[in-house]
Amino acid sequence: MVDQNYSTNQTEKDLFYKEKKKEEMKHQVVTFAMMIIFTLIAFGIVMADVSKMFTIPIIIVLAIVQVGFQFFYFMHMSNEGHTWPVTMIFSGIFAAFLTVLALTTIVWWG
Amino acid sequence: MSATATKKAGFGSVLWDYLTTVDHKKIAILYLIGGFFFFILGGLEAMLVRIQLIQPDNNFVSAQFYNELITMHGTTMIFLAAMPLLLALMNIAMPLQIGARDVAFPFVNALGFWLFLIGGIVLNISWFTGGAPDAGWTAYTPLSIFSEGHGLDYYSIGLQIAGFGTLMGGINFLVTVITMRAPGMTMMRMPLFSWTTFIASVLILFAFPALTVGLFLLTFDRLFGANFFDPSMGGNVVIWEHLFWIFGHPEVYILILPAFGVFSEVIPTFSKKRLFGYSSMVFATVLIAFLGFMVWAHHMFTVGLGPIANSIFAIATMAIAVPTGIKIFNWLFTMWGGTLRFTSPMLFALGFIPSFTIGGMTGVMLGAAAADFQYHDTYFVIAHFHYVIVGGTVFGIFAGLIYWWPKMFGKVLNEKMNHWFFWLFFIGFHLTFFLQHFLGLMGMPRRYWVFLEGQGLDLFNFISTIGAFFMAAGTILFMYNIVWTAMKEPKASGDPWDGRTLEWAVSSPPPHYNFKQLPLVRGLDPLWIEKTEGNGKMQPAEPLGDIHMPNNTIIPLIMSIGLGIAGMGIIYQVDNPMWWIVAVIGFIIFFGSMAVRSLKDDLGHHIHKEDLEKEGDGSNG
């Protein structure tokens, strides 16, 4: 009786994890495909030789999105227990961004 | 290795034990010895500076030697004295306060110390090889590019090596606080010193890379023919100032936040009250760190950044006064209605509050961009930053050292001598630096070798020098006290100050595994909760079991020596390419020891349950 209960629980658990893994795999494949597409777009824009003012921002935006994919889907940053790494990465990005912004504005433009 | 075995050990084995240690408590003692040595060295340099300025047109030291003295005084005191002494306090107190058995990476902890020491030694070798760095502790380009001799090369290489060590220490503490807190020790139950250690480590992590980059550029400009700071080749001299201060301003918060943490431990303990406004203290600490990254250009108001940039940085600077003010009032309210005990750590805390407030006030004055054009590069600036660094950081270091001395060495320093020490140091400090505010307002510029007679500067400079002798006398008394205490004072109990936090729940000094069983933390000031609501002892959170501890290793020392040798080779390869051999040998030692460490498994050892049971209950006696 007890054993039976245990085993049904176990199968339910297995099912749950199977479902979850399937879901995760789907995300991985989709993001992987999207990253390849993004890279193709980036190369495509450069090869198409459109104006620089158009090319550079698009490439930068694509790069940022790709970094996000990398962090959240391939490095599992969206999973539980990653609050501290996420906080630290974002504060680091913030400090670096601020520095670059200030330097570009007051040293090279000012 | 039981306690009796270490007691009977000879000098050689004790030395070997310290050279190979990975124990955070012993590394704290190493940091203390290293930091205090450089503190004395920097103090001697300061004394020579003050003797030179005791009278107008003095000829005590030459102009060149004076430049070297001021440069090395600043560099030594910031990088080689204040930071290691704070790291000593962090190492001794933080793991105990959060209920951990060691830091997260004991090997890296040892490596951090040895890199600091080797970096400091490399920097100071310059005294014996034809002149120390002489471009000021900020090493502004282009002066630092054109400075002759190898002084500035020693500066860039020495600080680079020491900087690696500090960066490793910071990352280590971050991981320790995040992953190794005892059961029940949530972030918002952490003692404030552990919080400030954590936040200072965040600042180290984000600020030191700017220094690393700056020093690399300087090294390449000076030694490898690069032109990052040469305008005629398309470089830009102002970039160095930016990089230096992007690091340099967070650096001063790295120095002051742990001192704030010490006072936040000392004041509640000796007021017999919990810290007033704990959560606002945490908030203020985080806010100071956050704002600290946006104010660096207030060191550069006169560079010509333009009125908009100057205004933005001026306002950000003044905003920092708000969280700092929150802290000051919280300390005052902690004392309000408390049962005050005027022990020497408490005296330093009480001396700190008005001194630091004066320094903060002159800081806001300097932060007003328009007024700063008047104060810039005068003794007003000198007075300001000595008020915050000596009145804040150094007072904090001494308060912390005296407070945690029993945890490091098992004895309480002689209180009577410490009271004398405090008063000598406190009076000397104000005598030295208070009048420098007025010297600055009268127009005396900083970094000048001599001043002229009959300009109204004679008397104040004379008094200032007398004050410096008071501080020296106080420090000598403190050193005498250390020796006296080691010989004459009785052994201290685990809890000599009637403490509130976890470090006082273990014996003094603690066993090398810290906690036989990890304690269960039931709230803020966990030991105090057990004293008032329980039986005065921490409840264990786990059954008694084997404890896993890391093995001692000599590799960190060898690795650091390798990097030091490589640094010397790099400095001198411009004179003679044969020095490349030295550099290569150094790098072989460095990467070789890395390889040994990576390829050879070192799984540590276990202290067995049976041995732990034999050693008594391990709590405070």
Automatic annotation (TrEMBL), chain A:
InterPro entries: Cyt_c_oxidase_su4_bacillaceae, Cyt_c_oxidase_su4_prok, Cytochrome_c_oxidase_bac_sub4. It is a multi-pass membrane protein. Keywords: Cell membrane, Membrane, Transmembrane, Transmembrane helix. The chain crosses the membrane at residues 29-48, 54-74, 86-109. It is found in: Cell membrane. Belongs to the cytochrome c oxidase bacterial subunit 4 family. This is Cytochrome c oxidase subunit IVB. The gene is ctaF.
From TrEMBL, chain B:
It holds the Pfam family COX1. InterPro entries: Cyt_c_oxase-like_su1_dom, Cyt_C_Oxase_1, Cyt_c_Oxase_su1_BS, Cyt_c_oxidase_su1_bac. Its EC number is 7.1.1.9. The keyword 4Fe-4S does not apply. Residues 10-522 form the Cytochrome oxidase subunit I profile domain. Pathway: Energy metabolism; oxidative phosphorylation. Keywords: Cell membrane, Copper, Electron transport, Heme, Iron, Membrane, Metal-binding, Respiratory chain, Translocase, Transmembrane, Transmembrane helix, Transport. The keyword NAD does not apply. It catalyses: 4 Fe(II)-[cytochrome c] + O2 + 8 H(+)(in) = 4 Fe(III)-[cytochrome c] + 2 H2O + 4 H(+)(out). It is found in: Cell membrane; Membrane. The chain crosses the membrane at residues 28-49, 69-92, 104-128, 157-180, 192-218, 238-263, 275-296, 308-333, 345-371, 383-405, 417-439, 459-483, 554-572, 578-599. It is a multi-pass membrane protein. Belongs to the heme-copper respiratory oxidase family. Cytochrome c oxidase is the component of the respiratory chain that catalyzes the reduction of oxygen to water. Subunits 1-3 form the functional core of the enzyme complex. CO I is the catalytic subunit of the enzyme. Electrons originating in cytochrome c are transferred via the copper A center of subunit 2 and heme A of subunit 1 to the bimetallic center formed by heme A3 and copper B. This is Cytochrome c oxidase subunit 1. The lineage of its organism: Bacteria, Bacillati, Bacillota, Bacilli, Bacillales. The gene is ctaD.
